[in-house]
Amino acid sequence: MKRLLFAAVLIAMGAHARKSSTAAATPVSVINAEDIEQTNWPTLDKVWFKQNKNSDFVNALIGTPSAELKLGYEYSDVDNGIPAANALIGRIRLNYQSGVWKGFDGFVQAQYVGSLVDNYSSSKPPVDYDVVADPEAFRFHQAYLGWTGYDTKARIGSQEIILDNARFIGNVGWRFNAQSFNAGLIQNQSVENLKLFYSYIDSINAPDGDTKRTRQYHLVNVQYDLGEEKKNKVSAYSYLQRNDNADNVDTFGLRSWGKNGKIAHNGMLAFQRDAYYGYLSGALDNESVDFELGGEYISGGADPKERFQTLNGTAHAFNGWADQFLGTGGGLKHGLVDIWAKVSGQPMDKMTASAIFHYFNTAKDVDGFSGNYGSEIDAQLKYAFNEYIDTSATIAYHMKGDNNAENKTNDETVFWLRGALRF
After folding, report:
1. Residue 310 sits in a domain of what CATH number?
2. DSSP class of 41
3. Based on the number of CB atoms within 10 Å of its own CB, is 267 exposed (0-12), middle (13-18) or buried (19 or more)?
4. 270 contacts 253 by C-beta, under 8 angstroms
């Protein structure tokens, strides 16, 4: 009955969306160290409400309601003796963005994630099928109060935060539940070309549907724009874990990125205790086709203090879409060296395509394993019908390398088909 009800809600929302004629832009409810501006969700206020022009406060309370419906199929077959996963999962998000009154505004985003076909295991036991990490869950993904004034923006409440390239602090937007932070933050741009960001995170609403209350952080990120055209940027950051336990990890680092002519670069260095991280990529904008080469180094070692961790970032965007190396979030014993080549372009109007080849190797010889983890091929097609509807088809094929007991990767084929409707 629950699935029938869920399906009925999806169909009803889709039907209503086709009748609606009011919309605007794709939602971004994040404060980002690279771009602090917020883009509102598509508006339905002209359909549902009549504005009261005599009261700014009433107009701010009326605000802008909106909604998003996402439906996705995922097939995952890992060579591990467990039946392949087949999952058809939907997500409903209902959003309310208030207007601005004396610099204050608010945003609320409630979401429900549920399955229509549940032949899969989430990240929690029992494991009857291969894992698709989208458990059924309801939560207020975001609910915050914001203020803007004096070249400053501040927020307090549940919110998505993306810093730099999302490697260390991100929203894990690929997963249906995604990730948000229960936090307060402030960002100031009083000095030309300089952005100062600070946030205190009290707990984390993780993609597995749980709230992690043992991770408190102080986040500091300073970004400076170089040159008159501001096409190149540098940043320095410190992400300090407040609670003192065995997993205590403080991260310090630098980043440089930007574009000169047709050449773009992206580089990052970071360290934790006795662990180190490096990232470097270069891209060529060749008009119709873009090319990129890059590498990433994540240190490992017999001592856990030598294993670099990326606990709160958007890991899916790195090291292959099959997610064979999510263990870097807890520290890989052998570390990781990832070398990749990427090609992307626009084969037709409203369509984008990309393909990536990864080669994975260990970073350090531990317990007799120092060699090839394997390789992976990823490919994706995206098609946007209009500003309300977009679709994507994605595949990842991981091929295991050295047949060593310490090589924890497996052959895996993953396929996704997704569509999103916003109104």
Report:
1. 2.40.160.10
2. P
3. middle
4. yes
Q: 108, 137 in Cβ contact below 8 A? A: no
> For the chain, how many structural domains are there in total?
1
Q: Are strands 251-260 and 263-272 parallel, antiparallel or unpaired?
A: antiparallel
- Write out pLDDT tens, residues 214-260: 889 999 999 999 987 889 999 999 999 887 565 678 999 999 999 99
- What are the two backbone dihedrals, phi and then psi, of residue 152, each rounded to the nearest 5 degrees? -130, 140
* Angle at the Cα of 77 from the Cα atoms of 364 and 366, rounded to 5 degrees: 10
Q: pLDDT by residue (tens digit) across 284-316?
A: 998 889 999 999 999 999 998 999 998 899 999
What residues make up the domain containing 167?
A: 2-422
| C-alpha distances out from residue 94 to 44, 65, 241, 373, 378, Å | 12, 8, 32, 42, 32
pTM: 0.86
Closest CA to 116 of 174, 171, 176, 68: 176
Comparing 92-96, 210-214, 227-231, the range with the smallest average pLDDT is 227-231
Give the CA-trace dihedral at 72, 73, 79, 82, to 10 degrees.
100
Sign of the CA dihedral 273, 275, 276, 277?
Answer: negative
For residue 7, the cross-strand partners are none
Q: Could you give the CA distance from residue 61 to residue 154 in angstroms, rounded to a whole number?
A: 19
Lowest mean per-residue pLDDT among 35-44, 271-280, 310-319: 35-44
Q: Say what the alpha-carbon torsion angle 205, 208, 210, 211 is, to the nearest 10 degrees.
A: -30
Mean pLDDT over each residue of the chain, to the nearest integer:
87
